[in-house]
Amino acid sequence: MMGSGGDKLARQDMFPTRVAEWRTEARVGTTPIGAASSLDVRDHPLQSVLERLAALRTAHPALATGPSAVRLASGPLLVVSRFDRATRHEYLAAFNAGARRASATVQTATPGSTWSTLLGEPVPAQTGPAGKLMLSVPPLATVLLRADATLPSRPPVRPTLVVRPDELTDLVQARANVATLDPVPVAFAVQRGGSAWTRVAADDSPPYRGFLEPRQFRRGERVRVVALARWPDGTTTVSPVVTAVPRPR
Fold first, then answer.
1. Do 132 and 204 lie in a common domain?
2. Mean pLDDT (10-residue bins), the chain, 249 residues
3. Which domain holds residue 229?
């Protein structure tokens, strides 16, 4: 629905309408509805696109539930990786919101692989030994690729951890960095005094962050914070412990 009067008039009836101007207004992807019902419209172009997207989500569950990593967010171009942990395949979705073709070279986690096009303009795609991939996305379009090779095995590394006040809220942010291209989930735990460690947050996509609520701690209380990364082979690596005061005096 479009509405010649802006948002306030983009609310036409889906069923046969009695509003005269709504019968003659243009609609996205189709002609004015007249006295007919929108619910009877078949083979609408938006319907076809949504059906195809739904089929992709069904065939590739990682598109809906897999961890992600933003590869590029510049101007009209957004490129995001999505990972299937079960099959160890990487997907790459590129969105161009601009009116001109956009090109970029992005980092992936899958070196030395060809990539199959699942959606959008079919283009030959190949990552080099360092995992770099050159993309060219048509204007106002989306391209979805899937690596033909699986993610390589990478050695586990220890996370690093910084605890500091969050820039946008009154919370305290625990931020972990894991120097790897592998998608790994990270958990954050806190120890108060001599008590047991308690998990307070988990994040499966970089940047890895957890948040502490200062009001849950005593004024001036010192706590110990740690980050734990879980690797595909079952190995867990632990960051150095950081001492913090979530609620200053």
1. no
2. 76 87 85 89 88 96 95 97 96 97 97 96 92 96 97 96 96 97 95 95 96 96 97 95 94
3. 160-244
